[in-house]
Amino acid sequence: MAKLLYSATMSLDGFIAGPGGDMSWMTRLPETGPHETADGLWKQVGSLLTGARTYGGDDPNAGTDQEGAFNGQWSGPEFVLTHNPPATSPPGVTFVTDLPTAVDAALAAAGDLYACVLGADVAAQCLAAGLLDEILVFVAPVLLGDGTPLFRHPGGTFVALDEISSTTGPVPTIRLRVRR
């Protein structure tokens, strides 16, 4: 049975994108060599759930062989949560206007793999609705100072998480389960 996973690379100061959604900082990260969790993640993903900003946003690898999800290694069904779906969809992309339908479709398409949430806003909506199962964060050795935080909830909130695993090294990784 599929699980809903929010996966993101975050700067040490907590941002997953720079000001205005800029993702170019990802191309300037120092080479750290093989990373067991990151290198194999795309094989565990059966579908993507993104928001319109993430779907139409800045791909730091645009125009290269690494363009697309997981540095171009992944392909499969993508579900885009949006208030303004276009009249037509590219192959493999489905635009959905409400969160429960989008989550159900992404989970069904994922099969026994993860439905991977990309984008802070959709992840926050999934978390608020009690639908998010896990969070996987790669902590990049950079400071951005501003941008899109990993998680934002106006007025604040408390979300209890349980550690599943963590790694150390040049890019520490934390995998957490959302406590229900």
Describe the 3D structure.
With 180 residues, the protein is α/β, with parallel strands linked by helices. It has four helices and ten strands; from the N terminus they run ββαβαββαβαββββ. It has helices at 36-41, 52-55, 99-110, 120-128, and strands spanning 3-11, 15-17, 45-51, 78-81, 93-96, 114-118, 134-140, 148-149, 161-167, 173-178. An eight-stranded mixed beta sheet has the order 5-4-3-6-1-7-10-9. It has a two-stranded antiparallel ribbon with strand order 2-8. The radius of gyration is 16 Å and the shape is globular. It starts with a strand and ends with a strand. The mean pLDDT is 91.
Order of helices and strands: EEHEHEEHEHEEEE
Task: Write out the strand line-up for the largest beta sheet, numbering strands in chain order.
Answer: 5-4-3-6-1-7-10-9
Q: So what's the overall shape?
A: globular
Instruction: Please identify the structural class as seen in this structure.
Output: alpha/beta
Radius of gyration, taken over Cα atoms and rounded to an integer in Å: 16 Å
Strand content: 25-35%
- The overall strand count is 10
Helical element count?
Answer: 4
Kindly, what is the distance between the CA atoms of the first and last residues, rounded to a whole number of angstroms?
Answer: 18 Å
